[in-house]
Write a structure and sequence with these properties.
There is one protein chain. The protein is of the alpha+beta class. It has two domains: 3-126, Immunoglobulin-like (Sandwich); 187-308, no CATH class. It contains nine helices and eleven strands. Strands 1-2-4-7-6 form a five-stranded antiparallel beta sheet. It has a three-stranded mixed beta sheet with strand order 3-11-8, with no helix packed on it. It is elongated.
Amino acid sequence: MRIVPYILIVMVIVGCAGEFESQGNIVFDTSLDTTAGRVGDIFHYTISIGGLTNQSLSLPTLIIPEGEVRSVFLLEEENSISGAEFQIVYWDTGQQIIPSFTLDIINPDSSIDMSFKSDPMFITIYSVVTPTDQPGLKPIKPPVPVEKPIPWRIILLLTIILLLIGGILYLWRKRIHKIQFPENLIDFIEPDRWALKRLNELKKSDLTDIKNSYTILSHILREYIERCLYVRTLEMTTEEIIAHKNLFQFSDNMFEEWMLLLKRSDLTKYAKHIPDLATMHRDVDWANQFIKDTIPMWKFESEANQVDA
């Protein structure tokens, strides 16, 4: 029975010493600093190989179940890598394993000279707090004060509701209480009466300023057509009016005479051609008759008769 403790000591030393293997002159060895520890302890697992000449070492990639390789330190001998030390940490209790791996010896031509396969190693991981460290119950700790979280969701909803209420009040205050028509609409003059009045004022004015008179005459006719037919002739050139002839329900003769007057006005405006005073009088009279002839095209017959009267 006295021999049993010695046998156990020999078994522990053999387990910690790891694995020793020799093949030819090359020696392969693995060792572990301890086979028991606690969660979070660092275990040092060493791989070493000796007797290499021109060969190189292909280190394995360790995959540790229920743990991780914290860091790897290379071991050098005579300016060549002779092994590595792995620092391993386990995060779960119980019996853990360092799995077996294959270590390749590489020739200078990148071919594999020989391979070594290690045996798995087992480590017993204990909890950080064990019954020997804490035989009794822990003392009762006072309650931890918890700060009440800021109710961001309620604050956001209240902000949205307040903004909606503010928008409704703003729109309600801006509502139209009573429709008020501008004064210029109340004093609205029908297009034909306005145009005839302007022509009468033009005829009574000094027509010797041919250039200015033709500019006014062209503007009167364009605005009259725009107000009664709703065609934006004030914004159109004479060529654009001709291109959109289908918008004007005039006879061909009436439309051509209107275009001749507009072209004559354009030539006068840019001082390319100045008509005589007699032509100016004839164009004013023609414009007066043109307005009267086009009234039935957009006005009811009863209202047109009132204008003629």
